[in-house]
Amino acid sequence: MTPTLLRAGLLALLTISGRVPAADAVTVLDVTRADVQGFVAGMAKEHGFDATALTNLLRDAQSQPRILELIQRPAERTLAWWEYRLRFVTEERIDGGVKVWQEHRAELARIADRSGVPAEYLVAITGVETFYGRNTGRYRVLDALATLGFDYPPRGEFFRRELEEFLLMMREDNVDPRTPLGSYAGAMGIAQFMPSSVRAYAVDDGKDGHRDLSEYGPDVFASIANYFVQHGWRAGEPVLAETSNANPPDDPATAKMALGDTLVGLHLRGYIFSSTMPEKTPVMLVPAALEQGMSWRVGYQNFYVITRYNRSFMYAMAVHELAQAIAQRHGSTESQVAGP
Q1: Which of 129, 162, 164, 165 is catalytic?
Q2: Cβ-Cβ contacts under 8 Å for 179 (sequence gap 6 or more)
Q3: CA distance 302 to 316
Q4: What is the DSSP letter of 18?
Q5: Which distant-in-sequence residues (6+ apart) come within 8 Å of 254 by Cβ?
Q6: Which of 88, 185, 198, 258 is most exposed, with minimal Cβ within 10 Å?
Q7: Where do the domains of the chain lie?
Q8: pLDDT tens by residue, the chain, 340 residues
Q9: Rg of the chain taking only CA atoms, in angstroms
């Protein structure tokens, strides 16, 4: 069965169960459903929302089959590393990162110095996430979170929690929940924070009374830096190291996104790489499929931190490689400007 037919079959099966709309056409969320009513009752009890007003708001939410299709086939699951890299580590994104760095030089230097997160990583996150603000999302966040919260059973609980956080954030900021746009998963702004991340990690670095992640400025960079620091970023430590091993003993399918190895342990298993860190430093083995075959890398604590932003080896590798390329080109550009 082809992937297209398989997806169609899955959608048909879910439609019969009453969980997903049968047609591609958008449908209004059924607020009489027990799970929707339970959500409303919980928001009223725990956070003081008016049940009638919230029901009317959710009645305006649209359940979209396209969102359900996208959530089941993100690029991180459908591409090999070398294909994924071709999308994100490009000349255009490198040049775009250098431009952003030059335009926000002072605030990036200040935030990087304060947080210990190098400027190139703060910039690269926005390059991978939204192509420097070009693609911040076209779906209403309300629709995305309602669709995934009530019509996507595998992760429904997670997205209902994000819907809760979104509604709380909209109330705090006095914004109509029908207006914000974001990704198909409900992520928002240049840095693509989920609502819970906005409430937990976004920073009003501009000191203007609100956290603005929709426009480039200190709030965006400070919020990314704060997210990294709160998840354990270690200033001055490495992120990723290449290995050389003609016959790697590990199966890529068994690779775990956790610091379950040590430098000395990988050396004893035959992986060849250099490091200035202590032998017992916790690390992870990172698979990276190339056109000519499998390669392996060593991920340190800071690599693990990047995977907290997006639970994907390939995403974290793309951020790292783009950051390194931006830093190299930015340094070359600065040298040319300074002259001999």
Answers
A1: 129
A2: 140
A3: 10
A4: T
A5: none
A6: 258
A7: 3-73+137-182
A8: 333 333 333 333 333 334 444 445 678 999 999 999 999 999 999 999 999 999 999 999 999 999 999 998 877 777 999 999 999 999 999 999 999 999 999 999 999 999 999 999 999 999 999 999 999 999 999 999 999 999 999 999 999 999 999 999 999 999 999 999 999 999 999 999 999 999 999 999 988 888 999 999 999 999 999 999 999 999 999 999 999 875 667 888 889 999 999 999 999 988 999 999 999 999 999 999 999 888 999 999 999 999 999 999 999 999 999 999 999 999 866 645 544 5
A9: 22
Burial of residue 67 (CB within 10 Å: 0-12, 13-18, 19+) is buried
Is residue 242 among the annotated active site residues? Answer: no
Indicate the fold that domain 3-73+137-182 takes in CATH. Answer: Helicase, Ruva Protein; domain 3 (1.10.8)
CA-CA distance, 15 to 121, in Å (whole number)?
Answer: 43
Classify 97 as helix, strand or coil.
helix
> What six digits make up the tokens of 328?
């190299």
Q: 14 is written with which tokens?
A: 């879910």
> Residue 196: enclosing H or E segment and its boundaries?
helix 195-201
Contacts of 220 (CB under 8 A, 6+ apart): 126, 189, 190, 191, 212, 213
Query: How far is the C-alpha of 194 from the C-alpha of 141, rounded, in Å?
Result: 10
Q: Which CA distances in Å does 336 have to 120, 150, 187, 323?
A: 19, 55, 38, 20
Q: Which two tokens stand for residue 257?
A: 């996104």
Q: DSSP class of residue 258?
A: S
Cβ neighbour number for residue 36 with a 10 Å cutoff:
21
The pair of three-digit structure tokens given for residue 311, joined into one six-digit string? 């639970």
Helices (H) and strands (E) in the chain, counts: 16, 8
CB 93 within 8 A of CB 131: yes
